[in-house]
Amino acid sequence: MPIANAGAADRTGGFASRFNLQQYVVYLGFLAIFLFFAVVLRDSGFLTVRNLSNIVLQTAPATIMAIGLVFVMAAGEIDLSIGSIVAVAALAAAVTINAYGLAPGVLAGLGAGLLIGFVNGALVAYVKLPSFLVTLATMGLFAGVSRSMTNLRSIPVTDSTFTGFFGSGSLLGVPSLIWWTVIAVAVGHLVFRESRFGAHVLATGDNARAAAVSGISVPRIRLAVLTISGGLAGLAGLLYAGRLQAAKYTLGETDLMTVIAAVIVGGTLLNGGKGSIVGALVGSLMMGMLNNGLILMGLSVSDQMIVRGLIILAAVAVSLREKNR
Amino acid sequence: MPANAISTNVPVLQLTDIRKTFGGITAIEKFSLDVHPGEIVALVGDNGAGKSTLIKIVSGVHPPTSGSIAIDNEIVAMSNATMARARGIEVVYQDLALADQQSVYMNMFLGREPVNRFGLLDRRRMIAETEQLVKELDVRIPSAHATIRDLSGGQRQGVAIARATHWASKLILLDEPTAALGVAETAKVEEIVLSLKSRNIGVLIISHSLDQVFRLSDRICVLRRGRQIGVRKTAETDKNQIVAMITGLQEH
Ligand SMILES: Nc1ncnc2c1ncn2[C@@H]1O[C@H](COP(=O)(O)OP(=O)(O)O)[C@@H](O)[C@H]1O
Ligand SMILES: [Mg+2]
């Protein structure tokens, strides 16, 4: 007879043991940081409509990237190349718009993102390389490509349809960047939470073997999430180019850490199996608010980096604690 | 003769002269076995005897080197697990193959989630069907919404068997379903396995516990080093004879 094992003891627990701190930490954190800045920076213009809407507009590209990363991380993978994709896509769009016009430019930008994502995904899914190493390599590779594409020069984008649609325009009184954010979050949430694909992404990140024996094509899921992430990073590149009316290799350079932090703070587990698009949105807004507030407080760039790093550490700690609970 | 009686005469699973080699190693040879609807057949043998390999052959993971597999008297070729599932064969794996951070109902429908006419997950249907099955099988879980990792080992095993029961129309294969469970949980899982008989599903179960084999099975099939030593009706044999067959102290 097998010996009764202790691990099999009833672990159903009461409410207290099932209360999931991680699910709410992003909302509590958001509120706490908001209240902190509202009080400390009450005379520095933090609470003005202009400043608050600026935060939302500035975080739009990071939020779009975060949505892609939720899919990637929920599937148990990582995408470190999103920042590099942003620059390549923005530059590809800018160069192509200037040479061939609006539509080819948009296609070139999005296409570059999708293609790099697809290559990442194919290497992970079919060559079976770890996504950490693949996207670390493509991050470096495409950082180089964007630098060599234009000799470190900035490429102006003057097409007003493009800059209106992707950057500074508005529709029904709502800035286009907010439209992009809302649409991306809504579609992302629907696909992630309510489609079979979303369920298969979660199952793959949770237990790839269980997913496979249940008939889910694990390689296809891995290919898909990395392609989605690349495509959304490409869109983020277009948004940067539209808002700044120019593309440069520096675009997206510092976004990777912010986006990963937003996604983790938003309740997506590093090791997969769990994620939240709405959480990532709030996480992204929180990171944007943090940047904004720290600048208004007069912190130096290096101090800002230190504070952000500490907050990311805290977020990762909470995330892993919950996973090993 | 009533229809029921006819159907019970046709074996759901018929293995004939199965042979399986891995490179130079012969894992299974000259293996033949029928499993009838509503019948529980136990597969016993020492470590390395070939039990798991046999389960994998029936579930489509490893195609046999030679020999035939028939489902309801129809010879089938199964080259992957999806084909076996399409034939009404479900497996409860030793590691259960559950997604720990998902709900019970999402696990019940893993890979086979129903959608509504908008193409969105039909959660209501998944929850309702899960609750009904869990009640019928008397798997005591807090709710269909519970997360797998919050369940005990016995509850998880119950969920894995419930999932197999939901989808199996012909045959359920169980690989050591109680190896990791305590006494009370083992009793509960055995109860669930026995209740499968009334669903007219064939069950092929691997177990290392002879007590359990004698409590559950209608017939016992003994394997030793890939060879089929014999099949006995549980009611007409005893532990000493089975042990002798497993260890090789008695042939035939
Ligand atoms: N994939 C495989 N490749 C090579 N040999 C295998 C493989 N699977 C099983 N075997 C061999 O087949 C024999 C039977 O193994 P197994 O079916 O796991 O036994 P049991 O489940 O009865 O303990 C063993 O000798 C084992 O080493
Ligand atoms: Mg085994």
Could you walk me through the main structural features you see in this protein, from its secondary elements to its overall organization?
- Chain A: The chain crosses the membrane at residues 24-41, 53-73, 80-100, 132-150, 170-192, 223-242, 254-270, 277-299.
- Chain A: It comes from Ollibium composti.
- The complex is a heterodimer of chains A (325) and B (252).
- Chain A has 325 residues and is mainly α.
- Chain A has one domain: ABC transporter involved in vitamin B12 uptake, BtuC (Orthogonal Bundle), CATH 1.10.3470.
- Chain A has helices at 15-18, 21-40, 49-74, 82-100, 102-125, 131-149, 160-168, 176-194, 196-206, 208-213, 218-244, 255-265, 277-296, 301-323; strands spanning 155-156, 170-171, 174-175, 246-247.
- Chain A has a two-stranded antiparallel sheet with strand order 1-4. Chain A has a two-stranded antiparallel ribbon with strand order 2-3.
- In chain A, a hairpin with a 2-residue loop joins strand 2 and strand 3 (174-175).
- In chain A, helix 4 runs parallel beside helix 6 (131-149).
- Residues 1-18 of chain A have low confidence and may be disordered.
- Chain B is α/β, with parallel strands linked by helices and 252 residues long.
- The model of chain B is unreliable at 1-7 (pLDDT under 50).
- In chain B, strand 4 and strand 5 form a beta hairpin.
- Chain B is globular.
- Chain B has a single domain (5-95, 160-247), classed as Rossmann fold (3-Layer(aba) Sandwich), CATH 3.40.50.
- Chain B has nine helices and ten strands.
- The relative contact order of chain B is 0.18.
- In chain B, the strands form two sheets. Chain B has a six-stranded mixed β-sheet, sandwiched between helices.
- Chain B has helices spanning 3-9, 51-58, 81-86, 104-108, 123-136, 153-167, 183-195, 210-216, 239-247; strands spanning 13-22, 25-35, 40-44, 66-71, 74-76, 89-92, 171-175, 202-206, 219-224, 227-233.
- Classes of the chains: A mainly alpha (325), B alpha/beta (252).
- Chain A binds chain B through residues 1-2, 4-5, 7-13, 18, 190, 194-196, 199-200, 202-203, 206-207, 209-211, 213-216, 269, 273-274, and chain B through 81-82, 85, 91, 93, 95-102, 106, 110-113, 115, 119-121, 142, 146, 150-155, 178-183, 185-186, 208-209, 211.
- Bound molecules: adenosine-5'-diphosphate and magnesium ion.
- Adenosine-5'-diphosphate binds at residues 22, 25, 27, 45, 47-53 of chain B.
- Magnesium ion binds next to helix 2 of chain B.
